[in-house]
Amino acid sequence: MKKVCEFLNCKEEGVYPAPRSREDITTYKYYCIEHIRDFNKSWNFFEGLTDEQFENEIRKSTTWDRPSWKFGTSNYNKKINDPFNFLSDKKDEKVSKKKVNYKLLSSWKLLELNPTADIEQVKKQYKSLAKKWHPDKNLKLKDSDMFVKITNAYKLIIKSFKSPSVDIS
Ligand SMILES: [Zn+2]
User: Which of 40, 46, 165, 168 has its CB surrounded by the most CB atoms within 10 Å?
Assistant: First the structure.
C-alpha cells in the first residue's frame, strides 16, 4: 500500500522520509515533494541547543550512522564518501601518514584556521561554519556537500588533538 503524505489534509503520495523529531531521527514520517520542501525549510536541527547539546549532536552526527542531513534528495541515506577511511578507527593504521598529514592540513584550511589554534578555537569555528553551511539554510546540494566536508574536517582535527600519532608536520 502506498503511503500518503502526512501533512495535514494532503492526499499526495508520501515518498520522502523525514525524521519524526530531533530526539527520534531513526523513525520517519513521509511527505510528498512539496511538503518535504517545507519540512527542510523549517527543520532547524540546532535551534535551541545549548553549547553542550550542540557538541553532543555533532559527536553523534560524525559517527555517520544516521541519515544524511538533507532529506528527500538523491543523497539521502547514501553512505558518506570517506576514501581514506578516516572515520573508521579499525582501518587507521592502513592510512599512510603522508595522506593523513595532507588531509589534516587541508582540514585546517577548510575550517579557515591556523594549525596552531587550540581545541576551543576549533570548536568555536566549526560551530559557526556548521551554522553557515547547514543544509537547512542552503538547500542546494552543493552546499550540503560543504557541510559534510567541514564536518569531516572538524572530526579529523579533533581526532588529531587526541591522537599524537596523527601529527601535522
Ligand atoms: Zn503533501
Answer: 40
Q: What is the dihedral of CA 83, 161, 135, 129, to 10 degrees?
A: -130
Residue 39 Cα to ligand 1 middle (Å)? 10
CB 41 within 8 A of CB 48: no
CB 82 within 8 A of CB 99: no
Could you tell me if residue 48 is left (phi over 0), alpha (psi between -120 and 50 degrees) or otherwise beta? Answer: left
Q: What is the pTM of this model?
A: 0.40
Instruction: Tell me how far the alpha carbon of residue 18 lies from the centroid of ligand 1, in angstroms.
Output: 12
pLDDT in tens, 7-65: 888 999 998 888 777 666 677 888 898 888 877 776 666 666 666 776 666 666 555 44
Residue 12 CA to ligand 1 centre (angstroms): 5
Ligand 1 center–CA 10 separation, angstroms: 5
Distance 32 CA to ligand 1 centre (A): 4
Q: Does domain 46-162 have CATH number 3.50.50.60?
A: no
Nearest residue to 160 (alpha-carbon basis) of 120, 125, 119? 119
Question: Is 108 a residue whose pLDDT tops 80?
Answer: yes
